[in-house]
Write a structure and sequence with these properties.
Elements: E1 2-3, E2 26-34, E3 41-48, E4 54-61, E5 66-70, E6 75-81, E7 88-93, H1 98-102, E8 110-116, E9 133-138, E10 143-148, H2 152-171, H3 177-184, H4 203-215, H5 219-231, H6 236-274, H7 278-291, H8 296-309
Parallel strand pairs: 2-8, 7-9
Antiparallel strand pairs: 1-10, 2-5, 3-4, 3-6, 6-7, 9-10
Helix pairs in contact: 2-3, 2-4, 4-5, 5-6, 6-7, 7-8
């Protein structure tokens, strides 16, 4: 999902604007936050995408501001890591068309806050191999924006669900044998997808897994397992009740996401308006109005853009 402001990229917020930006380099500013406020040494490294050539390496403390400079017209894979924490990587593409570049007066620093989550014994780190997002230049906006592949919310609750599954397997070895085996062996891979073993699962396995997912607020996956539990049905009333509850939770989450998207569009439109890019601001406000047709403030903002455009 495209996020035109960095506030939803790895819990990104606009900050540290004091770092200057010239058009010789693209600058990323921010800080790395560790789960539970732990204070540890952080390592930030960058390679050219598709190679192992390290082009940047920086050591700093948690919560210490950083400013990373990248050459234009390159693709980077940037990794944030800390001992005893799951690493996180981001793709940064600094390609800008030469014609576009000549008409840009200034490219401000791109701000982000990167959150790292603490490792849990038995929970596989395979999910960290893929980048959580991408930063790149958008010609229409005339600035850098971000696509988010994996949200912090999803990572946090995936880890929580895996931890709950391991704990349940430890309490009762008959519940989920594969998770119990992973719990007993240090750092043995825990399956990241329950779907791969669905044919081997008993009714109770489905219920245990679905309950763990529900407790971890992963409602779509939980609903999937409740539906399959009904097919092996012993207690349909419980499963059907949980399926309805999951559906309501999913709908609630979608409403929250839509509110966040609306806030992003409003903030983006305001930023463009303040930069006197009235046509682009109007376009963004119109897009926001499609999501919230009854929002009178957006109508006023569009009218103000029209006034500025015809001046």
């Amino acid at each position: 999902m495209k996020k035109t402001l960095s506030i939803f990229l790895f819990t990104c917020v606009a900050c540290f604007a004091s770092y200057g930006q010239t058009n010789d380099f693209f600058t990323v500013t921010g800080k790395v936050i560790l789960e539970n406020g732990v204070d540890r040494d952080i390592v930030i490294s960058a390679i050219y995408k598709g190679t192992n050539d390290i082009v940047l390496k920086k050591y700093l403390k948690a919560n210490e501001p950083f400013a990373l400079k990248f050459e234009f017209n390159k693709q980077y894979l940037v990794e944030f890591s800390c001992v005893d924490f799951y690493k996180k990587s981001i793709n940064i593409d600094t390609h800008i068309d030469d014609v576009v570049m000549r008409h840009i007066d200034d490219i401000p620093p791109f701000p982000m806050i990167v959150s790292l989550f603490q490792r849990v014994d038995g929970v596989d780190d395979k999910f960290t191999e893929s980048p959580v997002g991408k930063v790149y230049f958008d010609e229409y906006i005339s600035g850098f924006i971000a696509d988010v592949y994996t949200r912090d919310f999803d990572i946090k609750h995936f880890i929580k669900a895996e931890k709950l599954k391991i704990e349940k397997a430890s309490d009762n070895p008959n519940k989920v044998p594969s998770a119990n085996a992973a719990h007993k062996a240090s750092r043995i891979e825990v399956r990241t997808s329950w779907l791969a073993r669905r044919d081997e699962m008993s009714y109770q396995d489905y219920i245990n897994t679905a309950d763990s997912l529900y407790d971890a607020r992963m409602y779509n996956l939980a609903r999937f397992f409740y539906v399959h539990a009904v097919k092996k049905c012993k207690h349909p009333a419980y499963c059907n009740k949980q399926i309805v509850r999951c559906q309501k939770k999913v709908e609630g989450n979608l409403k929250t996401i839509k509110k966040q998207e609306l806030l992003v569009l409003k903030s983006m439109g305001d930023s463009l308006f303040n930069s006197e890019k009235y046509c682009k601001a109007r376009f963004v406000f119109q897009k926001a109005l499609l999501k919230a047709p009854l929002d009178k403030s957006l109508v006023k903002k569009i009218e103000e853009c029209n006034k500025q455009i015809i001046k």
